[in-house]
Write a structure and sequence with these properties.
The chain is α+β, with helices and mostly antiparallel strands. It contains six helices and 13 strands. It has two domains: 30-157, VirB8 protein (Nuclear Transport Factor 2, Chain: A, Roll); 165-295, no CATH class.
């Protein structure tokens, strides 16, 4: 009898093990595992956007991107961001700032490659939920498996759906100018300024010159010109002469207004720049009230 019971127990053990082997265990496909890893990479990348200021100097921007984006993007994409920061995601203004990427879809397009669509949510301290987002911008990313690690290999950002800003970066003189979205498609007109001496034997003669840039609205035409945003560029020595009234820049009784400066140049708004009251001059005044020029040091 004992032998029979032992035999029965021995036969039941493997059956019990077999019957319980999958209880409480979720078996995931390799595609599902890959998709989860890809979305985690995109979410993590989105959380780093606010830490990368696109207004920083080239040296600081490189350091910031390497520290914050290096674990999420390929080296080739990082190089693209650095060569053209205007097309890179990151922080443009103190407020609002990019808080996260909300994913809407993630699709496997080929072995080891996913396409992820989402939205960059920009927020302010007043509201950080999606419904009250200060700005929303579509983003499409490609994420590929590189040597066993999922990395973002491509980023394409669309137009802002709400809010948003346009960035003009001048790497020759070292400043960034923030424009409203309505200025998308702006052009830059390069001119020059002349300064006439107000002292000694050179009085009345042109002794100083420098560049003047005009940011031109995309709707500007010869038939209907619109108000430009003019920016005069001075060396520090030239600006000192302006301040000391050693040179004159025109007939206006007042001099230009400083917009900002870096260690090499001073940027200024010409006096009476909007005396003609062209179409859009009030909008230009509103833009300038927001202190849109952000200088950075040249490397």
């Amino acid at each position: 009898m004992k032998k029979v019971l032992v035999a029965l127990l021995v036969m039941m053990i493997p059956l019990g093990l077999f019957g319980c082997s999958n209880q409480g265990v979720e078996v995931k496909s390799s595609d599902e595992v890959g998709k989860n890893a890809v979305t985690a990479v995109v979410v993590g990348f989105g959380q780093k956007l606010q830490k990368v200021s696109l207004l920083a100097s080239s040296k600081d921007l490189k350091k910031s991107m390497e520290e914050n984006y290096g674990s999420y993007v390929t080296s080739e994409l990082l190089a693209e961001f650095l060569s053209n920061p205007d097309n890179a995601p990151g922080r443009l203004t103190p407020s609002p700032w990019p808080d996260r990427i909300e994913i809407t879809s993630a699709e496997k397009t080929s072995e080891g490659l996913y396409k992820v669509a989402g939205t960059i949510i920009e927020v302010t301290s007043a509201g950080q939920d999606t419904a009250n987002a200060a700005a929303k911008r579509p983003i499409t990313l490609e994420v590929k498996n590189t040597d066993g690690k999922w990395l973002i290999s491509s980023v394409v950002m669309g137009d802002y759906q709400t809010g948003g800003a346009i960035l003009y970066r001048n790497s020759d003189y070292g400043f960034v100018f923030i424009l409203p979205e309505s200025w998308k498609g702006y052009t830059i007109v390069s001119e020059g300024w002349e300064g006439r001496s107000l002292e000694g034997s050179t009085s009345g003669q042109i002794t100083e010159t420098g560049p003047k840039l005009r940011i031109r609205h995309p709707d500007w035409t010869k038939e209907n010109p619109m108000e430009d945003i003019p920016i005069m560029v001075f060396t520090q020595a030239q600006w000192d002469k302006v301040q000391q009234e050693k040179i004159s820049l025109g007939a206006a009784p007042i001099g230009p207004t400083e917009l900002g400066k870096n260690s090499t140049y001073v940027f200024a708004l010409p006096a009476r720049y909007n005396f003609d009251s062209l179409t859009g001059y009030k909008e230009v005044e509103q833009i300038l009230e927001e202190n849109p020029l952000k200088p950075f040091d040249l490397q």
